[in-house]
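User: quick one, fold this
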Amino acid sequence: MKFRKWSGLVLSIIIFTVFFTGCSKDVAEVTPTAESGVLDDFTPIVSATGKVVPFEWGKLSFLNSGVIQEILIAEGDIVKTDQELMILAGSGQMQAAVTAAELELISAEKALVDIYDNVETAKAQAEVNLAQARIDLEDEIEERDKKDYRRVNDATLDGIRADYILAEDALEDAEEYFEAFADRAEDDPERAQALSALSNAQKNRDRALYNLNYALGKPDADEVAKADALVLLAQARLNDAESEYHKWESGPDPKQLEVAEARVKNGKAQLNSANEILMQQSLKAPFSGTVSEVYMRSDEWVVAGQPVLMLANLERLQVETTDLSEIDVARIKIGDKAEISFDAFPELLVQGTVTKIAPKSDEGAGVNYKVLVELDHIPAGLRWGMTAFVDIEVHE
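Assistant:
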């Protein structure tokens, strides 16, 4: 630690004290004290060497590998935040992928809207299907119940029995009529006509008798089994119709809605991914500043992460210490005032403020810590990399 701001008065007192002590031991020794006010303007300081650096700088690189199609800036250019600096080849294909992703997202969103728009229609159709399923089940149960009794009801049975009586009476009449011609020759027309009438009457009577016997009987086991199966089938269809109706009764089908929403979510993710890839074809300025160096040329291949240019904010310069020891860094804090001088401007002193103290020492010889000092004003001609000397005031 060293002291600055020694006043001429303090120096005179010291010289006078030494001289006076040597001349006489009887004279009281004069010792300057803080109480006397002589050292009131003493200010302890910590000194370090530093260099001028920008407030913000960085080496920029692409996130994708590719061929540099166009360089839009040159060294020394001042650029603004988000200004396009370089472009990789292949942006057309990336744009096509973005367009395809946009179309898929639009289609997915429309499908989701259609699900909600079709709820009422689907619900009405489900209600119709439910009503029809109930009717079908009732019909099949009724048909099954008939298998426990005669095949026909009483009215139908009366009609079938009447048909049989009439057919039996017609057969007797035909037989009696044929008896009148039975002795005639077989080729006699009248005999042939009577025989034909008798044959038809016999067929009609037989058919009527079969119908009567069928109507009086009960269904066989196969018919009953078939009727049972049809009842079960109708019941299953009714269950499905009820389930479908309940789905639409409370809104869209949850499964369809889940699939549609997942499709929209995936569409958005695909579009975001395509846009990100497209954006990575273009290198933009992350902050406003000056293009300090350009490392690449057009048509050169660049690897992802490879620096292509240096960008720095030269409008705000600061000083970064390079040799501040661990002993001295323990004595300072953020907000301490400092006085800075420069090799390039020997007569110039600039005031500043400590804004950052490194939490870890630098690698290399000795234990040194980087400290950043913000300048109260930027002198004309001050440049990045110039040597600076920093005196930081400490208060003990």
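User: anything notable?
Assistant: The longest strand covers residues 345-357.
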